[in-house]
Amino acid sequence: MSNGNTFSKLFGQSPFTALQEHMRVVVDCARDVQPLIEALVDGDQVRVNELKDRIFEQEAEADRIKHELRARLPKSLFMPVDRRDLLEVLLLQDTIANVAQDIAGLLVERKMSIPDFLRDPLLELTARCIDTVEHSARVIEELDELLAIGFRGREVDRVDEMLRELNRIEDETDELGIALARALFDHEDELKPVSVMMWYQIIEWIGDLADYAEKVGDHLRLLIAK
Description:
Methane Monooxygenase Hydroxylase, Chain G, domain 1, about 85% helix, globular
């Protein structure tokens, strides 16, 4: 949103429109982690820095939308969902962007290079975690349809199936993350202790992208059930 009037129009369409717009920015932020890791694999530090800057800009945009939504959401509002539930989903979405920013910041601050044994599994983990974020965003996009039919009927069943798929994808990321951590453990003696610590942190944060995406879905399931 470029200004307050635009945001007011956006938010006025439904209680979920600004939430959806926020999630679209969050997804863009998370998606850039993939080319960031690829640039690191290629040893392209210029590209790494460019992507870090773009992730930081997108995270700042997500923050701006978050603050606008919080400021403009009335304390009491006749909606089919509780204001606190809406803000909780917003916070979980925003955390995804924050984690992407943390990953980018650490990779640039430490000027890290990826050991050969980590490259392919790290790229696989990153891609699947971003799949999880994108899937949670697709669920968020269904909220207007759910609102239109009063949170019942076949659309609810379809969204519930989407949420089950979200849980399944996130389970896959857990398995990939565990396998990657084990590979790092097996090669710890080949790396400096500080590098080992940093890579464990990066693996954890990449997994957090999927973890918080799943939390978005879990909270939506509770919201729909109320």
